Amino acid sequence: MAKPELVYVNSIKSTPERVWQALTDPAFTARYWYGTRVESDWKVGSPITFVKPQGAPDTGRVLVADRPRKLSFSWHIAWGEMSKEPDSRVTFTIEPDGDGVKLTLVHDDFIEGSKAAEALKNGWPAILAGLVKTVEAS
Amino acid sequence: MDEVFKALADPTRRELLDRLRTDNGQTLNELCARMAMSRQAVTKHLAVLENANLVATLRRGREKLHYLNPAPIGEIYDRWIGKYERTRIAALADLKRALEDKDDGEA
User: Fold this and answer.
1) Nearest Cβ partner of A129 from B24, B69, B78?
2) ipTM beyond cut 0.85
3) Do B65 and A4 touch (CB under 8 A)?
4) Fewer CB within 10 Å: C terminus or N terminus of chain A?
5) In this predicted structure, which of A60-69, A73-82, B77-86 has the lowest mean pLDDT?
């Protein structure tokens, strides 16, 4: 198995519960994920719909939902060439860290030469920076 | 933020970050193989980088993989470079790269 391609860690001055909400509440995700509403009941096995301001929604499925510690889901990007790629896997780990929270994102299970992985090298840092700002301001 | 600047002030630590930028997710052994210093010294430098959150680590079985973590540098960028200056700064950086014809722009 190839090593995970995308790993990011962000420190957030907030609580695990608040960060969990930021990841799972569509009104919240829309504020930092370029208007994307991430909709699901967040039960293991349930579908996820990534409703974007324009275009077909991305889809996924809940793999792990251990509130407020670990959230993992499969993700199929519906846009352009990337839509031909199989699902990849996103895992968020939320850990208390001092008086804040450490949020770790591991995005793996990409195919060799994945265009999605390449695009997300630019995408995730921006989305995560937005998430940190939105959570800390809320 | 002090920790980030202290971590970045050392050329060896910047070299480690460069190596991860080229090939992300390396083990300590892989990182040591190409550094002209002891394993212990590399471990120390990595600890400083990890402490400043410039390097993220991931356990993979018995191995520990090291990843370049851009978040702290992004915060510096956000803090001192205004939203409207970005395009001009990017254009100037492009120009500098084109004129110097190299990747790093290291003066």
Assistant:
1) B78
2) no
3) yes
4) N
5) B77-86
